[in-house]
Design goal:
Distance between the termini: 13 Å
Bound molecules: orotidine-5'-monophosphate
Structural class: alpha/beta
Oligomer: single chain
Largest sheet: 8 strands, parallel, barrel
Shape: globular
Length: 232
């Protein structure tokens, strides 16, 4: 039996005022929220603190990718906001991953530290375009193993790679999967997608869902329908 995944609603809005009406309709006991580059750049740490104060599990998705010292300090600053999860790019390499992990160790309560493997918008052709002559699955597994060996809690990948990652990294290694698309919804720039129900059946721990909710006529209803599809 698989446990139902926890859903992070991606608050991909241009500012706090645009995001807040949806936040007000969400139940913090049923889902979390993700703050990414657009909203964080506009609304900043204050907005993240406000979400945390409202009781939301917050995934701060800033995908840090820099030299080890810079990423370690950035991850530490994110942790001090009280977020539940923070991410870095696994392709920053082992020393960067270890430095990020190390930076959180003395905190009484630390966020989950997750590394992005291959963005869900990318295909094998895109990997070839950046000089990586491997399949998506090979690259995802390679980066997930590096992430795990560096002490992190899990990876961002597509739900399509869940099975191979569960085989290669075990079921306790957290999988965070964007690229979730309910049947009939627009794919947009995502390439490696799966429906919420199919992703739930894979035993994935965390789903990230943005536009199928934020662009829906009734975003709050879209959240409810997605959550109920996970148990169906
Ligand atoms: O780290 C992420 O959250 C992330 C990684 C990835 O590989 N793909 C990906 O889509 N995301 C984020 O997940 C969200 C997906 O949004 P939608 O495509 O609108 O559902 C966006 O906020 C992305 O920034």
């Amino acid at each position: 039996m698989t446990t139902q995944p926890f859903v992070f609603v991606a608050l991909d809005y241009p500012n706090a005022d645009a995001a807040w009406p949806l936040v007000e309709q969400l139940d913090a006991t049923q889902c979390g929220v993700k703050v990414g580059k657009e909203l964080f750049t506009a609304a900043g740490p204050e907005f993240v603190r406000k979400l945390v104060a409202q009781g939301f599990k917050v995934f701060l998705d800033l995908k840090f990718h820099d030299i080890p010292n810079t990423v370690a300090k950035a991850v530490r600053a994110a942790a001090e906001l009280g977020v539940y999860m923070v991410n870095v790019h696994a392709s920053g390499g082992e020393r960067m991953l270890r430095a990020a992990h190390e930076a959180l160790q003395d905190l009484p309560q630390r966020p989950l530290l997750i590394a992005v493997t291959v963005l869900t918008s990318m295909t094998e052709e895109d990997l070839h375009g950046v000089g990586l002559d491997v399949s998506v699955a090979e690259q995802v597994v390679r980066l997930a193993k590096l992430t795990q060996a560096s002490g992190l809690d899990g990876v961002v990948c597509s739900a399509q790679e869940a099975e191979i990652l569960q085989q290669q990294c075990g079921r306790d290694f957290a999988l965070v999967t964007p690229g979730i698309r309910p049947a009939g919804s627009e794919q947009g720039d995502q390439r490696r997608i799966m429906t919420p129900a199919d992703a739930a059946a894979q035993g994935i721990q965390y789903l990230v869902i943005g536009r199928p909710i934020t662009q829906a006529d009734d975003p709050a209803l879209a959240v409810k329908q997605i959550l109920s599809s996970l148990t169906a």
